[in-house]
Specification:
four-stranded antiparallel beta sheet; 0% helix; mainly beta; single chain; Methylamine Dehydrogenase, Chain H; 42% strand
């Protein structure tokens, strides 16, 4: 049996935001990407903790980002937009207005970005330019991270009123 460490050594807090961080971190090529309720998305160097870039979205960022192999990070914001950012520089490549808060984690493939929204729809966007490819509107707020399989897309929603049940959808191509 291997020896297990009993505690981690904390070296220091490397980056501080001006508000809470309520979402998952993603990494790509030595960079951690995350958002904060201070309305910013951060790109932080994992080797030394330095902040490489910061992008202001205009509202809280609770959505977990998706990072594609081509070098783009996609993240949603309470301002209703999905942002496509250059993972190295943070430069905005495009943005798409969903019409509602984007709080769930996004999913990306080389061709598509999937984002649920408080507008009650799951949006499938073209990864290259942010154009809407399709959307599916359910009964409640699309707040989960979409799950993609080889033959379907699944996503869950919560109802707009407390105490009502949510739904899980399975979407298949026509």
């Amino acid at each position: 049996m291997r020896d297990r460490p009993t505690a981690a050594r904390v070296t220091e807090a490397v980056t501080r935001t001006r508000s809470a961080i309520w979402m998952a971190l993603r990494r790509r090529d030595g960079l951690a990407v995350f958002g904060s309720w201070d309305g910013h998305v951060y790109g932080v160097d994992l080797a030394d903790g330095s902040e490489r870039w910061t992008v202001e979205t205009g509202a809280d960022v609770m959505s977990g980002p998706a990072v594609d192999p081509g070098g783009t990070t996609y993240v949603g914001s309470h301002d209703g937009h999905v942002y496509a950012l250059d993972a190295t520089t943070g430069e905005e490549r495009w943005r798409y207005d969903t019409g509602g808060w984007v709080i769930g984690s996004l999913r990306a493939t080389p061709a598509h970005v999937l984002a649920g929204s408080y507008d009650r729809a799951l949006h499938a966007l073209d990864a290259a330019d942010g154009d809407l490819i399709w959307q599916f509107a359910g009964d409640g707020r699309a707040t989960s991270a979409p799950l993609m399989t080889k033959d379907a897309v699944y996503y869950a929603e919560r109802r707009p009123r407390e105490g009502e049940p949510g739904s899980l959808y399975r979407l298949v191509a026509d």
